[in-house]
């Protein structure tokens, strides 16, 4: 390198002793000392700075590759988790469908049972109402017989002109009157 500089210096036009130095061409000692300083800085840079920079770049490259690998692994895990979530969701939807279907079946059973219970309750209430109606009818018939009997005895006493207070005669008369009355109802 120094030889190259010397060649450049020798190729430059020589300045005579009395002439002024050329403004673009430095003096020879400046070129030599600049070349020595440049060589020392280049050696120091080559020996110390460049390996540290290379190591730093290698570490960064390794860190970036490691982060990329971690990102790929995380993405694979995320995809696996998504697949598992999708499978669980599908399973849950299937189970929900089964539960809804079972609930429908149970609801139909409950409705059918409620209908059966309602029909049984209706029959029981109807039977109780029929029994109550029959009891009230019997009670009305008995009450009516007593009233009709009393009226018939009073009427018969007024027609016959004698008192029919004898219970046996009065009962026989009332029974005969009611029997005649029932016969007339069935004929009509």
Explain how this protein is built.
This protein is an all-alpha fold and 188 residues long. The chain is 87% helix and 0% strand. It is built from three helices and no strands. The chain has helices spanning 2-11, 28-160, 167-187. Helix 1 crosses helix 2 (28-160) and helix 2 (28-160) packs across helix 3. The longest helix has 133 residues, at 28-160. It is rod-shaped and about 190 Å long. The mean pLDDT is 83.
Assess the beta-strand content as a share of residues. under 5%
Count of discrete domains = 1
Helix count, DSSP H or I runs of 4 or more residues: 3
- Got a strand count? 0
Helix content: over 70%
Report low-confidence residues grouped into runs of 5 or more.
Answer: none
What's the helix-strand series? Answer: HHH
Structural class: mainly alpha
Average per-residue pLDDT, rounded, comes to 83
Cα-atom radius of gyration: 66 Å
Distance between the termini: 154 Å
Query: Could you describe the largest sheet, including whether it forms a barrel?
Result: none
Shape field: rod-shaped
List the helices and strands and how they pair.
Blueprint lengths: L1 H10 L16 H133 L6 H21 L1
Helix pairs in contact: 1-2, 2-3
Describe this structure in a few short sentences.
The protein is mainly alpha-helical and 188 residues long. It is built from three helices and no strands. The longest helix is centred in the middle third of the chain and has 133 residues, at 28-160.
